[in-house]
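[#protein-structures] MJ: dropping HTH tetR-type domain-containing protein here for a structure pass
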Amino acid sequence: MTLPKKRQLTHDRLRTSVQRLLLETDWTDITVQHVSSQAGVSIGTFYNYYDSKDDALRDVRTCLTELVKKDILLVLNTQAEVESRISILIKYFINILNSQSTWANYFYRAESFADRLDGGLVSLLEPLILESALFQKSHFKDAKIAAQFVENGIYPLLKNYHDKNQVVPESESVQIVILALSAMGLIGSSLDSAAKVVCPMTPLASLPQSIYELENTKAGYA
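AK: finished. structure tokens for HTH tetR-type domain-containing protein:
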């Protein structure tokens, strides 16, 4: 087996350092010195890889976004109806809040989904809204606006639960989904049945994770 090069290992340590700090501290309070010290490298070495701390965050966010989106695709494929897939998508992030403590810290220590997920929830929700089966039932013409409206409502709500160290009961999870689907113009029995769909729990490994190992194994599970 070929051993990783020193540069790859150093890059991996920096990425892991960013993750670890994000789980413990607000990003605005983190400095390049913090990242470098956590990774055990000099500040000069940090700048061999990144132009700024925000550049480092973007790199880690992109890597973890790919992992999360692959995971979400697995659970979305368990449902045929688009309303149920939207329900699954929303409940996925509720599940993270309720049972994936390190991922919950990663997402809900931020100010928006877009801070931790490339494109935010909108990038996942908009294509589902555009599916003809749902779009024909809705009363709006701009799927992106609808997706942004839902994201802007859901994120602060879940962040508030996280800040209070509370879980979202299933009954409230159903109500959150009903509100989201209602905002898209859905009514009737299809709304209620979709809101009650259970999102499967996935064995997503805890953070921090070695990006180097993820890229080489194409895995994200313990």
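MJ: nice. The radius of gyration is 19 Å.
AK: one more thing. Residues 5 and 11 are 10 Å apart (CA to CA).
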